[in-house]
Amino acid sequence: MKRLYRTVAKRIHPDLTSDREDRAKRQQLMSLANEAYELGDEMQLAKILTEYDHSPEAVQGEGPGVELVRVIRRISQMRSRLAEMEAELQELLRSDLFQLKSRLDEAQEIGRDVLQEMIAKVDEQIKQARERLKKPKTNGEQRFS
Q1: What is the pLDDT of residues 126-140, one digit of tens each?
Q2: By C-alpha distance, which of 18, 59, 27, 22 is closest to 9?
């Protein structure tokens, strides 16, 4: 774990660049690496290193060929992020909260006010509970207050 952390630090440390944007990115990655190391998360450290090694910022040099590699890597990053976002969206669409919202929207479309229905149901339950409390207790019953 310590060896991996040192490898990550040697590769992404912010002091290894003079470019302002690259330095900011490296500071963010170094912060994540420090956190992963403190938590003992070796997989996260490996992920940080892999992502950096495949990032556009890791490509050194100038010229059209190098710039093409950077662009290809940026496209790959965007595709990965889009896939992550799609997975997050699918997870949200399967959530109980979204299912509830969908049902409420459907009810509203056909003119039902579900909130008013719920209020009426609770009011009826309160009314029934009060009536039960007013009834005198009989021999076998116990009333709790």
Answers
A1: 999 999 999 877 665
A2: 27
82: Cα separation from own chain's centroid = 14
* Span 49-64, pLDDT tens digits: 888 888 887 788 889 9
Q: Give the pLDDT confidence score for residue 139 in this predicted structure.
A: 60
Residue pLDDT, tens place only, 65-91: 989 998 998 898 899 889 999 999 999
Phi-psi category of 113—alpha, beta or left, where left has phi over 0 and alpha has psi -120 to 50?
A: beta
Q: What are the Cα distances from residue 49, in Å, to 7, 29, 129?
A: 8, 9, 63
Which amino acid is present at 144? F
How far is residue 70's CA from residue 80's CA, in Å, rounded to a whole number? 15
Tokens of 105: 């929207």
Q: Is 145 helix (H, G, I), strand (E, B) or coil?
A: coil
User: What does the domain layout of the chain look like in residue ranges?
Assistant: 1-58, 62-94, 101-134
Helix axes 2-12, 42-53, angle to 10 degrees: 30
Burial class, 23, CB count within 10 angstroms (exposed 0-12 / middle 13-18 / buried 19+): middle
* pTM confidence score: 0.51
DSSP 95: S
